[in-house]
């Protein structure tokens, strides 16, 4: 699953931080952007499994909180802003956006001026916040 | 609170499996980088087990076309990430065409950076050598790739040019800036040469900068006739390239 690759990268990032800063305890928030339509259950399961292994292997403690971030867009041509919920995407397009969120530029246009030139303001993908 | 992009760690892990990464670059468009990349993949697959290919021409990916793949038939296969598309037993490809089919992909700089990171973080390669086809110019894609590759330190750039005066001027500019940054170059590969005089123009330029001349792919009429399975027919015309390229790689990898 694609979610496994993301979970592996998240845990690897924390392990790298542990090695770099000689820290042993991590309180983290995994922020998941709406645009990538991540399967929360799969991501949570993968993170739980990988976290246990990393904690044992590296003698660290990881607290993980997962939160969602709404996707918002701003047209670079006319300045209009909108949300993902304001538009409709076919299933095959949703699948492509799930893997590479930027392909939304091929499938979505500004609802006002029809331009494909817009900015993904928030809710693009996954990132980790260290609290 | 600090925010960290987890893809950086994933990308590094995925790229570390490669013995060598070969970006194919040219500041000038239309010199045949994509065709050269596909041909190089076939040449290298004679010596190395599996060659991975990454089409970094993000807004207009066409490497799959040269390799004889139809985007409509390319399926996304998930297995703890995304598996590259098998071209044949020895070649595999990751391309944005897998996700957008025949659409164009209008991207600004930040989006380019994101796409490169995303694809390199989730792709589960099986090759040991990675060839990267890049768009023309020296812009966001190239800068992002150079940044990423500087952290894995196994890359060797192949520059492509035609004997055309403007292409040679452009490649000289590219060489100068890359040498200033101490970027490692495999050499310069000529394309569309019709005479020994053409070859001499390219070769003498490489000598001026102390770069290896890798040889030249001869000009072929109706190049689309060599796409896909027919690429193998082209190999007999470029036999001379094999030794130079393998020698350049072996010098670098210390084989």
Automatic annotation (TrEMBL), chain A:
Gene transcribed to yield this protein: hypA
PANTHER family in alphabetical order: HYDROGENASE MATURATION FACTOR HYPA
Source organism per UniProt: Ignisphaera aggregans
GO molecular function: nickel cation binding; zinc ion binding
Residues in the signal sequence: none
GO biological process assignments: protein maturation
InterPro entries in the record: HypA/HybF
Keyword Metal-binding: yes
This protein's name: Hydrogenase nickel incorporation protein HypA
Keyword annotations of the record: Metal-binding, Nickel, Zinc
UniProtKB/TrEMBL annotation, chain B:
Pfam families linked: ParA
Name this protein carries in UniProt: ATP-binding protein
Biological process (GO), any one: iron-sulfur cluster assembly
Alphabetized GO MF terms: 4 iron, 4 sulfur cluster binding; ATP binding
InterPro entries reported for this sequence: NUBPL-like, P-loop_NTPase, YlxH/NBP35
Signal peptide positions (record): none
SUPFAM superfamilies: P-loop containing nucleoside triphosphate hydrolases
Key words of the record: ATP-binding, Nucleotide-binding
Domain of life: Archaea
């Amino acid at each position: 699953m694609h979610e496994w690759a993301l979970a592996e990268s998240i845990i690897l990032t924390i392990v790298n931080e542990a090695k770099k800063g000689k820290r042993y305890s991590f309180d983290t928030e995994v922020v998941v952007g709406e645009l990538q339509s991540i399967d929360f259950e799969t991501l949570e399961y993968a993170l739980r499994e990988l976290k246990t292994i990393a904690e044992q292997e590296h003698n660290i403690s990881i607290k993980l909180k997962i939160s969602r971030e709404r996707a918002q867009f701003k047209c670079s041509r006319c300045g209009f802003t909108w949300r993902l919920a304001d538009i409709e995407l076919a299933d095959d397009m949703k699948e492509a956006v799930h893997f590479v969120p930027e392909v939304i530029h091929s499938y979505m246009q500004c609802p006002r001026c029809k331009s494909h030139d817009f900015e993904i303001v928030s809710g693009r993908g996954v990132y980790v916040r260290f609290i | 609170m600090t925010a960290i992009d987890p893809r950086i760690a994933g990308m590094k892990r995925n790229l570390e499996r490669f013995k060598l990464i070969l970006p194919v670059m040219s500041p000038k468009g239309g010199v045949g980088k994509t065709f050269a990349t596909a041909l190089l993949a076939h040449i290298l697959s004679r010596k190395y087990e599996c060659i991975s290919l990454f089409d970094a021409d993000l807004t207009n990916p066409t490497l799959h076309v040269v390799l004889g793949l139809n985007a409509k038939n390319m399926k996304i296969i998930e297995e703890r990430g995304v598996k590259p598309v098998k071209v044949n037993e020895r070649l595999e490809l990751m391309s944005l065409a897998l996700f957008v089919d025949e659409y164009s992909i209008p991207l600004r700089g930040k989006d380019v950076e994101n796409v490169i990171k995303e694809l390199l973080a989730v792709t589960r390669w099986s090759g040991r050598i990675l060839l990267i086809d890049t768009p023309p110019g020296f812009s966001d894609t190239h800068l992002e790739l150079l940044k990423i590759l500087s952290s894995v330190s196994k890359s060797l750039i192949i520059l492509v040019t035609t004997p055309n005066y403007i292409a040679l001027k452009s490649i000289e500019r590219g060489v100068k800036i890359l040498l200033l940054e101490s970027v490692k170059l495999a050499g310069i590969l000529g394309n569309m040469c019709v005479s020994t005089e053409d070859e001499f123009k390219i070769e003498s330029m490489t000598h001026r900068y102390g770069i290896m001349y890798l040889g030249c792919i001869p000009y072929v009429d109706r190049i689309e006739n060599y796409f896909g399975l027919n690429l193998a027919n082209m190999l007999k015309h470029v036999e001379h390239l094999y030794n130079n390229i393998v020698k350049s790689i072996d010098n670098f990898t210390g084989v």
